[in-house]
Amino acid sequence: MVTFSVSKVPTTSFDGQKPGTSGLRKKVKVFVQPHYLHNFVQSTFNALSAENVRGATLVVSGDGRYFSKEAIQIIIKMSAANGVRRVWVGQNGLLSTPAVSAVIRERTGLDGSKATGAFILTASHNPGGPNEDFGIKYNMGNGGPAPESVTDKIYENTKTIQEYLIAENLPNVDIAVVGVTCFTGPEGQFDVEVFDSASDYVALMKSIFDFQSIRKLLTSPNFTFCYDALHGVAGAYAKRIFVEELGAQECSLLNCTPKEDFGGGHPDPNLTYAKELVARMGLGKSNTGEGLPEFGAAADGDADRNMILGKRFFVTPSDSVAIIAANAVDAIPYFSGGLKGVARSMPTSAALDVVAKKLGLEFFEVPTGWKFFGNLMDAGKCSVCGEESFGTGSDHIREKDGIWAVLAWLSILAYKNKDNFSGQKLVSVEDIVRQHWAAYGRHYYTRYDYENVDAGAAKELMAHLVKLQSSLSGVNDIIKGVRPDVSKVVDADEFEYKDPVDGSVSKHQGIRYLFEDGSRLVFRLSGTGSEGATIRLYIEQYEKDSSKTGRDSQEALAPLVEVALKLSKMEEFTGRSSPTVIT
Ligand code: G16
């Protein structure tokens, strides 16, 4: 057994190591600076309680983006030096974010050990490569992202750090080969176990969904399917689940080879960046839909996000979670005993609220950030939750789950078509969404993103919007001047959340303008960018009248968009006459 020793390396702090909405995300050129990653990892170890470090089992893996392999070796050496007992690594360093959560919760090591936490190496939907982004976040023993109480401590530690511990002479571990490598150090044995990235996750999915009925759908001659991993880590799971387990044809998979730079693309599953899938599904084309796939879906870099498409049809993430909640008990065996409750993030449309009300379910509105759902789930208050930012999931783990969402939709399709697999016309994604609108009303919804705006200008715009809230009559005068046909603002605030489980309070979670007819405008600064600022503008309008739920959403929302741009003085502050991305 190779023996290692521990070095204490002096260091000085770096500015700006504050974890954002989901971990620390920066350009690779920032992360590769000497000591930069080390400082953050040591600050994390120092923020955890002793039993979560000394003698503990940690998972270290990620979406495989550029710099991951080097980062994994560094974290292994620092774990050894800090007294961690064993590190688990997905083969080739690959584990999707939901799979990490599943591994923490479900996996038992060869020696009977269980994981206490994880370093996840991902910048999610941000591009990868030497000039792009890298990221790191810590997940806790429940499988979910560290709460603010822990990330605040990590940040405080990064400001005062003076040294870190590392086993410099520990040889690099071959993470391409499954197996256990054992070392000895000053405090005893240290093991690194490399394991198959997909098995635990696949087993969990099989325990939740009825794979046989999904298989019937996927192999039906009338059903065609297309899944785009955008060269992210989802590719490592897609072949195993959709092709090997569920019988989809291999040609259904698009961009399913994980790449360090995501093939030069932007691994964000939306209508702008998932271009190939969007074209394949015929969106924006005026053809009849002949020969197009029935169902399409895409994932982001770390496979926690999803986009659901039908033939020439886009399902908004806000509708998606509402539809999954409305059908879960009938279509998904895991929920057959009923839902405990449902939750959405504040900027997500109120489509889920209407379902909760109709089904008599407990409902929660939390700030943006998956970590806020974790407490509700741990307390048994929430079964299904989702966010407008293409995140959907359930209490099977403590992260959002892109492939789970696709399996949920396939389950709903299989359920709706159960007596009709060989019929001429299957119930389609579009049919399901339109039936839902007919039953619950429709929330027209769109999001405008202004990416990489000057950070100072973005702050000024937000300050202006807060100031404006002090006079609602002033706000309504502006609205009357631009669009007298738009209803009036009856309330305006900055969203604040008191966690019903631990009582913690999160302030400044987005600026809201609430209209008399139920419409909403929400403004937020993204917490996941790595440079400049991204302003997000969320626009929503509820239509109950089923004869009016079939309009084009951009057309339906045009008056509210005009009002939002005027109120915020968007062009004046940012110099941008149009957003970078519209979803
Ligand atoms: C993260 C969080 C999500 C959040 C999203 C968008 O997702 O886990 O809960 O909705 O960021 O955040 P923002 O609007 O601040 O950019 P991911 O997929 O980036 O980990």
Automatic annotation (TrEMBL):
EC assignment: 5.4.2.2
Keywords, alphabetical: Carbohydrate metabolism, Glucose metabolism, Isomerase, Magnesium, Metal-binding, Phosphoprotein
Amino acid composition bias (Polar residues), ranges on this chain: 1-15
Subunit and partners: Monomer.
Protein name as catalogued: phosphoglucomutase (alpha-D-glucose-1,6-bisphosphate-dependent)
CDD domains linked: PGM1
PANTHER family recorded: PHOSPHOGLUCOMUTASE (PTHR22573:SF2), PHOSPHOHEXOMUTASE FAMILY MEMBER (PTHR22573)
Domain Alpha-D-phosphohexomutase alpha/beta/alpha: from-to ranges: 17-164, 200-309, 318-419
Entry keyword Magnesium: yes
GO molecular function annotation: magnesium ion binding; phosphoglucomutase activity
Native species: Trapa natans
